[in-house]
Specification:
This protein is an all-alpha fold and 93 residues long. The chain contains 5 helices and no strands. It has one domain.
Length: 93
């Protein structure tokens, strides 16, 4: 559990446990199954204890899976130049 009210407020956990910030930073590593077993245990324990983070990971995983099945599109050859032109015009305003 969190260490006092302000520990909870910041999403911090006691030593050895993952906090909300670390979970979000390492979510991709977890979803891609590139996390060490000991870290997976800490990660999943936090998700069990923190419904918001559990929902975050489920949503992140669903997004990653959806993106994998979208068709790949090749940008038009002039895309980089159009982006540069747009940035320059926005900067000049």
């Amino acid at each position: 559990m969190a260490t006092g009210f302000f520990g909870w407020f910041r999403g911090k956990r006691p030593d050895g446990e993952i906090d909300c910030t670390e979970l979000k930073e390492r979510c991709s590593e977890y979803v891609e199954q590139q996390m060490e077993a000991a870290q997976v245990v800490r990660f999943e324990k936090h998700m069990d204890d923190c419904p918001d983070c559990g929902t975050f990971v489920k949503t992140f995983r669903a997004t990653v899976m959806t993106m994998r099945f979208l068709p790949r599109r090749t940008p038009s050859p002039d895309l980089k130049q159009r982006i540069r032109d747009r940035i320059a015009s926005e900067r000049d305003q």
